[in-house]
Amino acid sequence: MGIFSRLFASDDAGPSEGQIRRAVKQVTQLHGEAATRVAAMERLAGWGTPPAAAALLRRFTVQTPQASMDLEEKQYAVKLLAGMGEVAVKPILDYLRTEPDVTFPVQALKRILPPGAFYEALLGVLDALSVGYARWPEAKTVLIANLGADAFPHAGETVRRFLDDDDDDVCVAAVDCLVRNGDEAVREKLIQVYLAADGRPRVRGGILDRFCEKAWDVKGHQKEVNAVIAPPFHLSSKGVVRRRP
Questions:
Q1: How far is the C-alpha of 4 from the C-alpha of 10, rounded, in Å?
Q2: With contact defined as beta carbons under 8 Å apart, do 213 and 179 qualify?
Q3: pLDDT for position 12
Q4: Domain that holds residue 72
Q5: What are phi and psi of 72, to 5 degrees?
Q6: S-S: 216 plus which of 137, 149, 172, 211, CB 3.0-4.6 Å?
Q7: Mean pLDDT for each consecutive 10-residue tract of the chain (245 residues)?
């Protein structure tokens, strides 16, 4: 673009790539002034374009030395993204598929979309993360934890895939989500996961905790469960999971 084109270009054209790069540099400057980061965040939000939203999301990839200030800035970034509305949806979804720290972007997405669309969007990301290698298991746990009862029973099929995840936190998050929002139909699958979780005490403990809460039994598998169950858990005479005080 020539000098005269730049001078007389309409604001509707949006920010240039150079402007975006400079704003990203300021937003992610760990040891710079908070005012500089915040001003850059507001400038990106004001531009109101998908590339600007994607750039604003970079604030969640860094953590400044002062924890309280870092939290305040990230909460403000959530507010700014939510204010951008639909423009920010695709950049947020792209971020969720590729970055580890998804807690704040999920909050922004939840403010923008109605519940049905929000859950559908999360399930789309989880579907993508459930196949092949995912570098960031912590992202899966946050996404699964944000699935509420309104997402079921449609979400059940997707969440069940994560019961076989190699990461204990992801598996336990899937267990919690299914027991919290599903029904007893998941009981049989959880027993199978429990029996297969040799060498994974956190997974087994997480499953038994949920069984205790629901007063579920292990009908049909009492002998196998009895062979591997460990304190403080035990089975009652009717095969119901109990926890000793």
A1: 12
A2: yes
A3: 56
A4: 17-113
A5: -60, -45
A6: 211
A7: 44 81 96 94 98 98 95 98 98 96 97 95 93 81 93 88 94 95 85 96 97 94 96 95 92
